[in-house]
Fold this sequence. Notes:
Layout: E1 2-8, H1 13-24, E2 34-39, E3 44-49, E4 62-63, E5 70-78, H2 80-89, H3 99-110, H4 112-118, E6 120-129, E7 134-139, E8 148-152, E9 155-159, H5 162-166, H6 177-186, E10 200-201, E11 206-211, E12 214-219, H7 233-251, E13 258-261, H8 266-278, E14 283-289, H9 297-307, E15 310-316, H10 318-331, H11 341-352, E16 357-359, H12 364-367, H13 372-375, H14 377-383, H15 388-398, H16 410-418, H17 425-433, H18 438-444, H19 447-454, H20 459-465, H21 473-499, E17 504-506, H22 512-520, H23 533-539, H24 545-548, H25 559-562, H26 568-576, H27 588-599, H28 605-622
Parallel strand pairs: 13-14, 13-16, 14-15, 16-17
Antiparallel strand pairs: 1-3, 1-9, 2-3, 4-5, 5-6, 6-7, 7-11, 8-9, 8-10, 11-12
Amino acid sequence: MCGFAGFYPSINMQKDNFFLNSMLNRIKYRGPDDTNIFRNNFIALGHHRLSIIDIAGGKQPSVDTKTKDCLVFNGEIYGYKKLAKRLKDEGIELNNSSDTEVLFKMLINYGIKKTLEKINGMFSFAYYNSREHAIYLARDRAGEKPLYYSFYKNHLLFGSEVKSIVDFPLFEKNIDFNSISDYLYLDYISSDKTLISSVKKVKPGEVIKYSEDKLTSFKYWSLSQSSKKEISEKETLLRLDELLEKSIKNRLVADVPLGLFLSGGIDSSLVAYYSKKLSSNIESFTIGLQNSTYDESNYANIVSNTLGIKNHLTILSEKDLLSSVYEIEEKIDEPINDPSIIPTFLVSKIAKEKVKVVLSGDGADELFSGYAPFRHMKIMRLLSCFPKPLGSFIYKVLGNVSYKDDYMSPLFLAKQISKGLGYNATQQAFKWMSSYARSDLDKIFINDFSEKYLKHHDAIENLVDSLEEKKSLHDKLTHLFFENYLPHNILVKVDRASMYNGLEVRSPFLDKNIIEFAATMKNSLKIKNKTKYILRKLSNDKIPKEIVHRKKHGFAIPLAKMLRSSLKEKVSETLTSNKARVLEFVNKKSLIKILDLHYKGIDNRKIIWSLYILEVCLNNNLKN
């Protein structure tokens, strides 16, 4: 794991070193163990390293003295030892025993397309092929590891975070208001966009090539659900058991201490079961909250006690949550309106005191239909028949009712569901999750911005319209959750929360073979009265029954309460200050009213937090 930055072509030694240091300065936390810079007459590369495999030998940037090719790489290649043996059998010499060296020699000898077909891992990398005078930027299939780029004044700039690029000296930072529109609808920025108009994301499963003054791109992988396999439930269970055990075995390879996150949900509990089976001394990390409706720690203790895993449990106070907000807001540059980044940051911080790598259960909900909309597809079809004005009316009524700040309280759920009433079933899932109803957008944002970027641009509708009409509702939801919500929200959150603490997180469910197997499974094996049917069935003889049959519980915090107490002054002052960047497009009077209503008991947490995180990210992107 690491952070890297670079540009092509290089300029001269003095400027290259200065520019690289500027680009690397604000992402040091991604690789606290070592920093190296390389430049020649063609390319300039910088790398911060978090040492996990081959501590002595895996230094970067990698440079081949014969071909003059270069590589910077972030992530892990799983099963790299078998790939190393294959290379050696073909007479290809390896200079060290790291997965970086294996990837580098594969790229040199096999080329970009063949290498990407062969490797299984979480990764982003920049590879310079000197024979082609071309640079390749590539990202893993699910989007676990980030990579951004920009073409600026005849230079291709690239880095692990947006900050790496905007910190290039004299870089022009112009806000992309279409990206802000996306964020307001989705709570994250989709596709290849960022807050800065000239900075783009390399998308999951994508390669960007720059050669002969031309930028081109191609997808080397995408999720395919077109070929459902007619295999029995028994065969599916046997295959899934085999794949998951193999995936976890590959992810337990490290030359440093390793542990796992344990929430007490079915996904992390399954990971815990196989991890304990394969590594008897594995330890887990759990956080609990003082508000019992948000706290899952009792379930985590049940799992750890049953499996015989030493679990490190920390009960967090509101003061702990508040301190983490200050740390996160110093670094975050890609807006995600997901407050669970706060507990994820804290559990990462606690884990880092004992280990450098943890395993998590991320990806299971997207692949095996773990979210509520998968279970309520019939209801969603029914709700789509109601007139939209009815949903607006219900939302308006509930918007004037105060209710207790408990996890997923009935009135909170009703208010969220009302946002989707009358919309087609595929859109409803994302309307439910959104922070704003149509009426909120009309009231909060100034007319010019609303007219230009919101009224005729609905990011949720655009995503749904891009789907193949012939797909089933179930497959459409899987596509949207896996290719949008997962890489642009969940994995951004996990990457930043962990890397801000110099911790590597590995997700066994996002193994290439598991992703592709899940995509070919019959949907009837994913939903049968309950979500994640096949995972529950697989868990029956592995983890306690009360865990197997638990309802899904998100990783949440009592944010509404915090915005009325510990966060009140900070958030209010930030958003209503005359220096607030969001006031360029937000109506200040409407914003103050939203804050005042929240303080009086009306739950406006999603809107307030959405604007606060956007303000923080704008500042971190635009500051000199």
